[in-house]
Amino acid sequence: MIRTIIIDDEPYASELLASLLKKYCPETEIIQICNSAEAGLTAIRGMKPDLVFLDIEMPHMNGFDLLEKLTPVSFDFIFTTSYDQYAIKAIRISALDYLLKPVDPNELKTAVEKYITRKSRLLPQQLDILLAQLQHPRTLSNRIALPTMEGLQMIAINNILFCTSSSNYTILTLKDNQKLTISRTLKEIAEMLEEHPFLRVHHSSLVNLNEIKKYIRGEGGSLLMSDGSLIDVSRSKKDQLLKQLSGK
């Protein structure tokens, strides 16, 4: 059984989540429900759970503050939150799991299944990236945590040449001729890199603008990348690309 703690300052939300877990995720054992971050801190230290469902927005001490007090973190956690653009972006960049409220049963089942089946555990660097992004939201992170087939990998963003779609996966091509298969869609990768010099030039391609060597004219055209690869440009993306390249 997965020893589980729920931390949420809204009693209705925590009881609802507990009910969903009992119904849809019988492999979890709820050992404590806490309605404040302070109570959650005490419960985690005393009961040493395997998994924590952690609300982000709580008075006095939010979910991120709680994690800072517990570093190094010895358990897995899944954030629960109402939509917060900046918080969710930071969570995505650090490859941590989250559920939007109201929690959908299917998404809850998927999150618990991911916890059970993933090969790698929480890495200290994931929390470092998350907290750095939250403390300095206007500062661009130079690293990103991405789930590969072998486990989580920390990648320097400027080391990415381009990304190509492969169904529900994305293949990253790096400067050292390495290719990584990432368990994220190209759309998700594009959202994570949206403040960096990357552009979706085709429905199946996202490129690092700093690694473009040449634009080759055509109906949509194509790009010669710094490693010699050719990337097609769709007609619908051509004007946006040329504006980006000309600095306008």
Question: Can you walk through the features of this model?
Answer:
The chain is of the alpha/beta class. It folds into two domains: 2-135, 3-Layer(aba) Sandwich (Rossmann fold), CATH 3.40.50.2300; 155-246, OB fold (Dihydrolipoamide Acetyltransferase, E2P), CATH 2.40.50. It is 35% helix and 31% strand. It is built from eight helices and 15 strands. It has helices at 11-24, 37-47, 63-70, 85-93, 105-117, 124-135, 186-192, 235-246; strands spanning 2-7, 28-34, 51-55, 76-81, 97-100, 143-148, 151-156, 160-166, 169-174, 179-182, 198-202, 205-208, 212-216, 222-225, 230-232. A five-stranded parallel β-sheet has the order 2-1-3-4-5, sandwiched between helices. Strands 10-9-8-12-11 form a five-stranded antiparallel β-sheet. A three-stranded antiparallel β-sheet has the order 13-14-15, with no helix packed on it. Strand 6 and strand 7 form a beta hairpin. The longest helix has 14 residues, at 11-24. The termini are far apart. The model has no long low-confidence stretch (mean pLDDT 90). This is Two component transcriptional regulator, LytTR family. Residues 144-248 form the HTH LytTR-type domain. InterPro entries: CheY-like_superfamily, LytR-like, LytTR_DNA-bd_dom, Sig_transdc_resp-reg_receiver. GO terms for molecular function: DNA binding; phosphorelay response regulator activity. It holds the Pfam family Response_reg.
